[in-house]
Amino acid sequence: MSNNQHEPVAIKLWNYFTAVINWVQAIFPNYRKEMKGVEWGFLYNDFSSKSLDPQKLEEEIVQLMRDEDATNKKGIYQYVLTRNEKYLSIRKFTDNQIREAYERQKGFCPKCKAPNNEYELKEMEADHIKPWSKNGKTNAANCQMLCRDHNRRKSDI
Length: 157
Ligand SMILES: [Zn+2]
Known about the structure:
The structure is a single chain. The chain is mostly helical. The protein folds into two domains: 4-88, no CATH class; 95-156, no CATH class. Helices cover 45% and strands 6% of the residues. It is built from six helices and two strands, in the order αααααββα. The protein has helices spanning 7-27, 40-47, 54-66, 75-82, 95-105, 148-156, and strands spanning 124-128, 143-147. It has a two-stranded antiparallel ribbon with strand order 1-2. The termini are far apart. The structure holds zinc ion. Residues 109, 111-112, 146-147, 149-150 line the site of zinc ion (ZN).
């Protein structure tokens, strides 16, 4: 079989890859090794028609690269476009921080209306008092234990 009949498809694909690369270079002109392996095709499909400010994005990327709580540096590029925190793998509280908050609260959930409702440690979940998105850090001072019900309700908002 001749290869010629595949040529139009190959050219179309090549044009698409070129468009993706050009877009990435225009939006993220400062190359970093973390850009390798990002699924740029999907981001191009969803965001190439949106107006984006490369300078603002770069400032935010610099800040996130320095943020110890953003543990997945590769996910920064997905995050600044999609705003989905799952890409950053925000640092979890350590067992010590969790224990400290639990002892401080003496097993009470601050959101429960009935204050006599005491919980076992395993019935509670750690929560950022001030959310990470509002500059809240993953440290002992910003850790509170909520009963599962209230933690799930909080994360639904
Ligand atoms: Zn509760």
